[in-house]
Amino acid sequence: MIAAAFLIVGLAACQPGKEKTPEVLASQPVPSVPSNEGSPTGAPQITGNPTEINPDLIQVMWETSRHAHTYVLDELGINSSCARCHAPTSYIPSMNDMPESCSTCKFEVPPPPPTIAEADWQNIPCNICHRVKKDKVDPNYTWLSIPPIDEYEDVASTTELCLKCHGQIDLAGHGKPDLANAHAGYACTQCHDAHTTTATCESEMCHANVLNPTAPIPGHDENHKTVTCWACHDAAGMAVGPDDQGNWVTFLPASSIPYASHNIVKQVLCERCHFLNNPWNLSGKVP
């Protein structure tokens, strides 16, 4: 991912190396953010009004997120095109990507270098999704569509914002979240914390009792502790199996790239893994 959005940049996520943490403007309304206690990363989570949270905490939360660690290189050691989504403020667009007015004013952009050094890589700072002026962050979200000229584009929802980067593109390991069935119509930030980008099904606002030992649900036991929720509850027909760490996940079609299914249903078909002569030496019978 998600997104994955996924997925939304931290409200006051400032760039590494900055001495000052941008201040959150508490006078602006902010959509509520669901708690994600129990996150696999163990990152701190916001459980109250984001405008009441110390900006230093928001900074820490962002630093634990994938948005703070986006440096990539392709198989040729090139990343200039990757920066368009992975580090937008480091991305150097071509003149074809700039507004027509730039050409009218004889504004020129030099060709980008094939590789951006990690020291110059800006990850996903707060100004990608929020206006920042004099180190003050406006909590209302918006999309920095053209970073070199500080041009923003209004978006109708956080999901529309996430999909600016987490949409479908023809690259290995890149998939568009397919929100269908049980989670159809959900916004990205209803599952993913807006600052850490992590999501957990066992949030107290969602499925807090699925691992209740006093009233166990079949399949939610010690034997399945390495099985992710989406590996069993996927409705997209994705391939299922263990990843490199031994956790059972779903994979992008026709690949061995793990990707969390966002097409979820309550009903589970155990025979998807427990069938005769399965490659994982699991029981051929449903427990």
List keywords for this structure.
little secondary structure, 5 helices, 287 residues
**Cross-sheet strand order for the largest sheet:** 1-3-2
Number of alpha- plus pi-helical segments = 5
**Which residue ranges are poorly predicted, with pLDDT under 50 across at least 5 consecutive positions?**
1-48
Query: Can you tell me the overall shape?
Result: elongated
Terminus-to-terminus distance: 31 Å
| Classification by helices and strands | little secondary structure
Average pLDDT over all residues: 78
Number of strands: 9
The value of Rg in angstroms is 21 Å
Strand content: 5-15%
Main beta-sheet strand count, sense and barrel state: 3 strands, mixed
Give helix and strand order, one letter per element, not per position.
EHHHEEEEHEHEEE
Helix content: under 10%
Layout of SSEs?
Elements: E1 23-24, H1 55-63, H2 83-86, H3 100-104, E2 130-133, E3 136-141, E4 143-146, E5 151-153, H4 158-162, E6 180-181, H5 229-233, E7 239-242, E8 248-251, E9 263-264
Parallel strand pairs: 1-3, 6-9
Antiparallel strand pairs: 2-3, 4-5, 7-8
Give a written overview of the molecule.
The protein is low in regular secondary structure and 287 residues long. The protein has a domain at 83-120. It contains five helices and nine strands. The chain has helices spanning 55-63, 83-86, 100-104, 158-162, 229-233; strands at residues 23-24, 130-133, 136-141, 143-146, 151-153, 180-181, 239-242, 248-251, 263-264. Strands 1-3-2 form a three-stranded mixed sheet, with no helix packed on it. Strands 4-5 form a two-stranded antiparallel ribbon. The chain has a two-stranded parallel sheet with strand order 6-9. The relative contact order is 0.17.
